[in-house]
Design goal:
Number of helices: 5
Helix content: over 70%
Number of domains: 1
Number of strands: 0
Distance between the termini: 38 Å
Amino acid sequence: MLYDYIYFKVYMWVSKRIDPFVPQITATIALSLFPLSIVYLVLKILSHLGIYDFEMSFTTSSTFILVVVLLLLLLVLNSIYFFGYKNWKEIINYFRKNKVTKQINIYSNIYILFCTSIIIFFLLFFGYNF
């Protein structure tokens, strides 16, 4: 229910602001990038602590290959989930008609804000070594 509601919120935001033509695909891509932002943050923290050598500047580095494989895996799994297993139209119509609890709304807002802020920070400072 939480993941479906996150999809609904991202879908509504994308359809109003970014992509009014096929927001279901853009929302699926965004939901695939959200977990990668958390992986990026963990790898960056491990790099600062000296536990892991974080290197994304080369396409042959193990971190870059790991991120690309995770992105492709998440894209496939999200596509299967929202287009094959659950119908994305039913999710959107359900949440347009029904309200969710305050707790689910808070959790989804925190997750979306956290992941989006990491992605924005990553895009602003991409390539810089801190």
